[in-house]
Design goal:
binds NADPH dihydro-nicotinamide-adenine-dinucleotide phosphate, Rossmann fold, 11 strands, alpha/beta, 4-stranded mixed sheet, 44% helix
Length: 386
């Protein structure tokens, strides 16, 4: 029998992190949790640490470090506080794989540190590839580290590729649910509320990605993520709206054949596949029943109403640090939307404003990305809605 894969879960208390722990719990012989991290949710991190007995935990918010340390003092668990500790713990020698399930730009530094230490990456944190895809994929190649997609669309594409050897991809088709506002006009979108945007029809996710899904920025970020994961040109990536979220994405090959991966919208499937790859482990997840889905439908996305998708394509086309600008502007836009400081459509205006004003760098280094992120966040915070 193989020894269990030793894993770190960055963002263990979130939507992906908690589902990953359910997968681990269902397969105690396949996985062993070595590291768990959270930002603010000390209570859940403590109870996860008590249940899974990892070697180390990190609470990124240093104010909460004493709480976590004291609660776990009677156990042989190393407790760390602060973001810098994330970069340290991913390098523990016994780790095989790091699941990056934290949100946003914060994922970049620990992911790069894990790759440098030779750890395989189960990548949920798509923002890492949006910000610095070229740098991160080159680093992974140099260290012979696998970037295993967790995002359901990218997992679908990844699952369509085994057996294809060197057969080139002609194009991929990323499916999008369309979110809660599918079919709405710009005029109607002008009046939507935060509560409506936080209600996704098919997926139960963290707040940031839920807003990204409502604005279709999520699909824009996924286009950029797919470009880097599968080494594609922008023209090879198509987005199609599929409201039932059953066909998770498709790959078209040079003979015109299309392969797809299907299943109920349940993130535990792609999470488990990324953790257990290249094996498939059995699961008790509910099975898809064609009888319950008599019609699967597909439509073109409306990039006029959902301008964020067009902005993401534009940023990718421009290249350099433009996707990094897009990402930082979007992170601030979502945070300000959640604080009622900008409207739903105002998020796109803010992002377009940052793309116009932030300094463009054609061949960015890591330091350039850090500077771009800082500059864009300043611009985005200073942005005054019209
Ligand atoms: P959540 O908001 O539910 O969870 C985020 C996790 O990361 C929490 O553990 C949180 O800690 C921690 N965290 C947040 N910000 C920071 C930070 N700055 N530093 C350190 N830790 C931090 O997010 P999701 O699970 O929804 O999403 C995680 C990632 O996965 C995102 O990149 C998202 O785009 C991607 N993804 C998510 C999907 C989903 O179904 N949820 C689907 C596909 C991709 P705390 O709880 O303490 O705040």
């Amino acid at each position: 029998m193989q020894s269990p894969k030793k894993i770190a879960i960055l963002g263990a208390t979130g939507s992906i992190g908690t589902q990953a722990l359910e997968v681990v719990q269902a397969h105690p012989d396949a996985f062993e949790v070595v590291v768990l991290t959270a930002q603010n949710n000390a209570a859940l991190l403590i109870s996860q640490a008590l249940a899974f007995q990892p070697k180390a935990v990190v609470i990124a918010n240093t104010d909460l470090y004493p709480t976590v340390r004291d609660a776990l003092a009677h156990l042989p668990i190393q407790v760390y506080g602060g973001m810098e500790a994330l970069v340290e713990v991913v390098q523990l020698p016994e780790l095989d794989l790091v699941l990056t399930a934290l949100v946003g730009y914060a994922g970049l530094a620990p992911t790069m540190a894990a790759i440098r230490a030779g750890k395989h990456i189960a990548l949920a944190n798509k923002e890492t590839l949006v910000v610095a895809g070229e740098l991160v994929t080159a680093l992974a190649q140099a260290h012979q580290v696998a970037l295993l997609p967790v995002d359901s669309e990218h997992s679908a594409i990844f699952q369509c590729l085994p057996g294809e050897g060197q057969n080139p991809i002609e194009k991929i088709i990323l499916t999008a649910s369309g979110g809660p506002f599918r079919g709405k006009t710009r005029q109607e979108l002008a009046a939507v509320s935060k509560a409506q945007a936080l209600k996704h029809p098919n997926w139960d996710m963290g707040a940031k990605i839920t807003i990204d899904s409502a604005s279709m920025m999520n699909k824009g970020l996924e286009v950029i993520e797919a470009k880097w994961l599968f080494d594609l040109r922008l023209e090879q990536i198509e987005v199609v709206v599929h409201p039932q979220s059953i066909v998770h994405s498709l790959v078209q090959f040079e003979d015109g054949s299309i392969k797809a991966q299907l299943g109920l919208p349940d993130m535990k499937i792609p999470i488990q596949y990324a953790l257990s790859y290249p094996r498939r482990l059995p699961s008790a997840f509910p099975r898809f029943d064609f009888g319950l889905y008599p019609s699967l439908t597909f439509e073109k996305p409306d990039t006029e109403a959902f301008r964020n998708l067009a902005l993401a394509f534009e940023a990718m086309q421009r290249g350099g640090n433009a996707p990094c600008i897009l990402n930082a502007a979007n992170e601030v836009a979502v945070a300000r939307f959640l604080k009622d400081e900008v409207s739903f459509l105002g998020m796109s205006d803010l992002i377009a404003d940052c793309l116009a004003k932030a300094s463009f760098v054609a061949k960015p280094s890591y330091e350039d990305y850090v500077a771009t992120d800082e500059q864009t966040r300043r611009l985005a915070q200073a942005y005054k809605p019209q």
